[in-house]
Amino acid sequence: MADLPAAHLGERFLAFVRRPDFPCVGAKAALAHGDIAVLAARDIRSAWDDMAIYDAVAAFAARYRRRPEPFQSLAVVFAGPGDLTEEAFEAALWNRLQSLADKDAFNGHLYDGRVSADADDPHFSLSLGEEAFFVIGLHPGASRPARRFERPALVFNPHDQFQRLRAEGRYEMLRTRIIARDVALAGEANPMLARHGEASEARQYSGRLVGPDWRCPFAAKAPKGPA
Known about the structure:
The chain is of the alpha+beta class. It has helices spanning 6-18, 25-32, 50-66, 86-106, 159-167, 171-186; strands at 36-43, 73-80, 126-128, 131-138, 153-158. Strand 1, helix 3 and strand 2 (73-80) form a beta-alpha-beta unit. The radius of gyration is 16 Å and the shape is globular.
């Protein structure tokens, strides 16, 4: 897979979201309002860019709290590799998220109290900058077409925006539309799909179909530095 300049990685990701058959209408709404931020990084297996990624996510969390409105996302698009199996991508995803969470704890940030820090808990979400996030992983080897982007990517979505949609009575309609579009693209519903509180959302992050015995390798740490 040829290298692309950093700016081109972002352009290709936004073009992927613009595709008519891309099922997530929430992402399309975010794009239409200019609310998808994109950060280019190198190898998803490497910790090389973790500090830059952490700073970007923490800044995004702060911006979201100043304007807590749906729909907003931060996409980290990696230059490669493009030949990861689903298992290898999943391992790389959790290595990156663990590294980010460790930096968050070192910086003294508390875990978002609205969600659980236990990755096996049905109320789990990743917390960075004291803001909970639902993370969507994409890569070329994904079995789900909606997750099959040409480069590895991690998309950070504030968990709070889903709660706001629920409070406004908009969430279920949005969810139904996304599922219908995903079925039209893939030919069947995503078997990993679950509402928050029914099963740990950690099972959905990588996009890989996992069984009931799967255990998330993530472990949150207590904050160490000054808050």
